[in-house]
Amino acid sequence: MNRVVITGMGIWSCIGTSLDEVRDALYGGKSGIIFSQERKDAGFRSALVGNVPKVDLKPYVPRNLRNFMPEEAQYGYIATKQALDNAGIDEDFLATHEVGIIYGNDSVAEATMQSLDKFRQANSTVACGSGAIFQSMNSNITMNLACLFKLRGINLTASAACASGSQSIGLGAMLIAQGLQECVICGGAEENNMYGIASFDGIQAFSIRESEPEKASRPFDAGRDGLVPSGGGATVILESYEHAVKRGANIIAEIVGWGFSGNGDHISTPNVEGPARSLELCLRNSGVDPKQIGYINAHATSTVIGDRREAQAIAQLFGQRTVPVTSTKSQTGHEMWMAGASEIIYSTLMMKNDFIAGNINFEKPDEETACLNVLPETKETHFDMFLSNSFGFGGTNSTLIVKNV
Amino acid sequence: MTREEIIAEINAELAEEFEIDEAAITPDAPIYQTLELDSLSLVDLIGIVQTKYGVLISKAELPTIKTFAQLYDYIEQHQK
Fold first, then answer.
1. Helix, strand, coil in percent for chain A, rounding step 5
2. What is the model's pLDDT at position A352?
């Protein structure tokens, strides 16, 4: 089996649009959450959202190609461009090597709605526009990026709800480990417009702490009352260790294992057993003892039940109040399809810069999250290995372990 | 609409949609090159004409529209 390493990272999020900016935001405990009057006026129960800047792709992508790209593909593009630059991979390299892409995405709401609105208004399919068919497919990110970056390897979208980004990295790592690909672009992106999550707001899953947007996302805290939606794009470049060494790449970290599981249970309410099996499989596949893990980046989204179940699963494998745990969603909100990838980047930035970002807004646990060692404030510390959880609707679970190199 | 009104409106619309300088749109300028149309983005031109004027340019007549003047003619003759 080949070793799998990360040689490039790119991020476009509500806490920063460059690696340096995001590193500083993590360290400083910055919140990216705001109140959106537009959402309130539109009828949202909770108008809280991650403040993700729009992307201006005009300097990079001509109109006729940009026309195929909905919001999530634009985030995916800019994050991937950054990651390729960070990895030292240019057009010549892409033209002479078989590079693949596996990217997480699980909604195309705004683009689909807009084109169908035009269709119904004009009673004409032509009115949808030439980009609509491409924009309204769930694989729009991988189809656009593969064409724009001239990728000739695997071309696949991972749709696994809020585990999509993590599953894409796990799948990419597996292909490289098995020798089927040498280099795969992995990541996740999430549209951040209100149409993508209007129905999610409808099931009352979001925090309603609208008077204090920066305090609304509070994973594991006893006062949590729901998640805060966010979005953006996050990309990592995965390569086999040999491939990276051969081309003289800067090796950032190593993916040492992936674990996954299905709950086989309720569509939205998680259990303990499913996530615990994902953690267990990841540790087993990695050949890693829990004591070697220096930090856990939890999936914890700030929902009452979800955080409890994850806390119990972590404690089952790691014991009571042992390894430091935080959820970066306390700062970013829930980046959903992007989260599994962005949280690998957040955690790697911490590992490379010797700190663990505090779980902001954590004041006191409830009786079931008290089993964890949640760090409320940023701590300067060295660690060489972390574990990152991502869980999604339908009971899809994914866990990755990443090692310092 | 008068021909002048059609020209003013469609030129502005096309310049915005295809992200070109409106000054490049002159009666004798070639539509395909000026708007950088390909087989897909051509659909957007057809869509704009249909949405704005209720005029659906038929596939058979499409090849006869090569300049902006010919496009104005077509809209003027077919508008409802």
1. 40, 20, 40
2. 98
Strand partners, A365: A221
What is the reported pLDDT for A19?
Answer: 98
Of A58, A124, A130, the CB nearest to B44: A130
Token digits for A262?
């299905």
What residues does each domain of chain B span? 3-78
* pTM of the predicted protein model: 0.96
pLDDT digits (tens, 9 = 90+) for A177-215: 999 999 999 999 999 999 999 999 999 999 999 999 999
Q: Tell me which residue in B36, B40, B51 faces A130 most closely, judged by beta carbons.
A: B40
Confidence (pLDDT) at A44: 98
- Alpha-carbon A300 to chain mean position: 13
pLDDT digits (tens, 9 = 90+) for A97-141: 999 999 999 999 999 999 999 999 999 999 999 999 999 999 999
Q: What is the residue extent of each domain of chain A? A: 4-253, 257-404
Average pLDDT, chain A: 98
CATH topology of domain B3-78: 1.10.1200
Candidates A30, A48, A41; CA nearest to A207 is A48
Same fold, A4-253 and A257-404: yes
**Are B19 and A122 inside 8 Å of each other by CB?**
no
Distance of CA A310 to the CA centre of its chain: 17
ipTM: 0.89
pLDDT(B80) > 90: no
Residue A292 has pLDDT above 80, yes or no: yes
Q: Left (φ > 0), alpha (ψ -120 to 50) or beta: where does A58 sit? A: alpha
- What are the residues of chain B with a beta carbon less than 8 Å away from any beta carbon of chain A? 18-19, 36, 38, 40-44, 46-47, 50-51, 56
* Residue from A182, A240, A184 nearest A5 by CA: A240
Query: What is the chain A residue with the closest CA to B19?
Result: A63
**CATH class of the domain defined by A257-404:** alpha beta
| Count of beta carbons in the 10 Å neighbourhood of residue A9 | 27
Mutation test of the interface with chain A: which of B14, B16, B17, B19, choosing the one with the most A Cβ atoms within 10 A?
Answer: B19
Beta strand A183-190 pairing with A155-158: unpaired
What token pair was written down for A310?
Answer: 């994850």
- In sequence order, what are the beta bridge partners of A244? none
- CATH architecture of the region A4-253: 3-Layer(aba) Sandwich (3.40)
Q: What is the mean pLDDT of residues A3-15?
A: 98
- Whether A129 sits inside 8 A of B44 (CB atoms) is yes
Q: Using alpha carbons, select from A153, A158, A154 the residue that is nearest to residue A139.
A: A158
- Partner-chain contact A58 B18, CB within 8 Å: no
Determine the Cα–Cα distance for residues A405 and A6; give it in Å rounded to an integer: 9
